[in-house]
Specification:
The complex is a heterodimer of chains A (263) and B (259). Chain A is an all-alpha fold. Chain A has 10 helices and no strands. Helix content of chain A is 75%, strand content 0%. In chain A, helix 3 (67-99) crosses helix 4 (101-114) and helix 6 (134-158) runs antiparallel to helix 8. Chain B has a single domain (5-44, 54-256), classed as P-loop containing nucleotide triphosphate hydrolases (Rossmann fold). The chains are: A mainly alpha (263), B alpha/beta (259).
């Protein structure tokens, strides 16, 4: 019979990844440094990919001239109006789908049929419906945000433990009180997770909508810089979009932290 | 005695084609503690759901009789096995939830302070449920139930999710709280020690479809009962003798049931 002499070997390591905030920043800075070094050494042609320093310089000029704010303010207004509209309707519809049989099947059928359509393909149709102005752009964003919000909200409502709803009913709480105090807070984690997805979708659609018939907006600015082979400004616009996405993600994270202190 | 009289007349219930309760009749007198015991799957919790209006019986009726106090906000009030606390509300917030629509802010604060004192939770008013032990969470469940001044307390295996030591400690507290509240109480349990410690009328249900197999009455006041009382131990033994064959058959049935 084989012998097993010696200390017991520890076997339960790993599978527990930890976040290291500095590692993310260090990776990005490292990549930027490599990029700059490649450009300075002449390995990367600045027409194809301008170096980080040139992009920062372009950003600086855009900021000083007020050009950046002119485009960014237009984009932010469209983003806010479109996202809030889509979110309000989406959360409302998601709650209705999650709570009422009368809406559930028909609502989900419509969502399932329309959700997979690439919303960018609908921009020309929205221009016909709402005109070339702000209406079509906001409709594109709202439409794109609406469907994932419905799905996230309805899923969140479905995942609220039925026992908690029954508890509310057993204490004679009104339907409104149950929705307000039990269903909405219970579905909130899923709704906020949905926000992360819908804000990204909204930025993509914003740029797409602004590339068709807009004079102001980051999408229009990027397109016009591209048409002129002005890659410094083109990438400066892309950096602004990335910064916008990061800022929104940070804001959602902050809201999540503030809302979920109970976890 | 205060509280409601509950009269169950030929109550039956079926889930699809499966009958779980069959022609069940019994009466809980005002202020009485009626304990429902029986083998697993005999329909105890289903019956409690029917009594509290959370399930519609497929046969028979449940009637309540009697007056309720002016300050009663929810005559038939549950205490749940899984506590059913909102994790995003503090202890006080969970109690406030069931008072909010019906009392002013100062009245609510007063009631919350009162029930937290009764259940020994005053210091934990602002704690989140996750920060509490199982026993403390169930105390919150009891405090929430008491806050609405119920005329009838419906307890669905309230101690079964707790460890044995906590269960014993909380059982003594339950006995004292129930005795003081003197509301009609329907207590569902599979634990016969709990049944004899709390029950004034112990209703033994047969295995599915549940019917009343026996009724045992214990006259001794709750305050005079103890966990080691030999008379109660003897009744507990009698109950086990009554239930044992059915419990074994129910377990065999469960094991043979298709997954």
């Amino acid at each position: 019979m084989p012998r097993l002499d010696g200390p017991v070997r520890f076997r339960a390591g790993g599978f527990a990844p930890r976040d290291r905030a500095w590692a993310g920043a260090a990776t990005l800075l490292g990549l930027l440094a490599l990029w700059q070094a490649g450009a300075s050494a002449g390995w990367i042609k600045s027409l194809f990919l301008p170096p980080p320093v040139a992009i920062i310089r372009a950003l600086w000029h855009l900021t000083l001239s007020g050009e950046l704010w002119r485009h960014l303010s237009a984009s932010l207004a469209r983003l806010a109006i479109g996202w809030i509209t889509g979110t309000l309707f989406g959360v409302g519809m998601g709650l209705a789908v999650g709570l009422w049989s009368a809406v559930r099947s028909s609502g989900m059928a419509v969502v399932a049929a329309l959700f997979p359509i690439p919303k960018i393909a609908l921009v020309p149709l929205f221009i016909i419906w709402f005109g070339i102005g702000e209406g079509s752009k906001i409709a594109t964003l709202a439409f794109g945000v609406f469907f994932p919000t419905v799905i996230a909200t309805a899923g969140g409502v479905d995942n609220v433990p039925r026992g908690l709803i029954r508890m509310g009913q057993s204490f004679g709480l009104s339907t409104a009180a149950i929705v307000r105090s039990i269903v909405l807070p219970g579905a909130l984690p899923a709704i906020l997770s949905g926000f992360r997805v819908t804000t990204s979708i909204a930025i993509v659609l914003l740029v797409a909508a602004e590339m068709i018939g807009a004079e102001r907006g980051i999408g229009a600015f990027v397109l016009s810089a591209g048409n002129l082979y002005d890659t410094d400004n083109l990438l400066a616009g892309i950096v602004v979009l990335s910064g916008l996405g990061l800022t929104i993600a940070w804001m959602i994270g902050w809201v999540e932290k503030a809302c979920f202190t109970w976890r | 005695m205060t509280g409601l009289r509950l009269i169950l007349d030929s109550v039956g219930h079926a889930y699809g084609g499966m009958t779980v309760l069959n022609a069940l009749s019994l009466t809980a007198e005002p202020g009485e503690v009626l304990v429902l015991v029986g083998p697993s799957g005999c329909g105890k919790s289903t019956l409690l759901g029917i009594i509290g209006g959370m399930l519609a019986p497929t046969a028979g009726t449940v009637v309540i009789e009697g007056e309720v106090a002016e300050d009663c906000l929810n005559p038939l009030t549950y205490v749940f096995q899984d506590f059913s606390l909102l994790p995003w509300r503090s202890v006080a917030g969970n109690i406030d939830l069931v008072l909010a629509a019906r009392l002013s802010r100062p009245q609510r604060a007063e009631r919350i302070a009162e029930v937290l004192a009764v259940t020994g939770l005053t210091e934990f008013a602002n704690a989140w449920p996750r920060q509490l032990s199982g026993g403390m969470r169930q105390r919150v469940g009891i405090a929430r139930a008491l806050a609405v001044r119920p005329a009838c307390l419906l307890l669905d295996e309230p101690l079964s999710a707790l460890d044995a030591q906590t269960r014993d400690l909380l059982l003594d507290e339950f006995a004292s709280i129930i005795a003081r509240a003197s509301t009609t109480t329907i207590y569902v349990t599979h634990n016969l020690a709990e049944a004899v410690r709390l029950g004034q009328q112990i209703v033994v249900l047969s295995r599915r479809p549940g019917r009343v197999a026996a009724i045992i009455r214990i006259q001794r006041p709750l305050a005079e009962r103890s966990a080691r009382d030999p008379d109660l131990r003897a009744i507990e033994q009698d109950l086990w003798t009554m239930i044992r064959a059915d419990a074994a058959a129910a377990e065999r049935e469960r094991l043979n049931a298709p997954a």
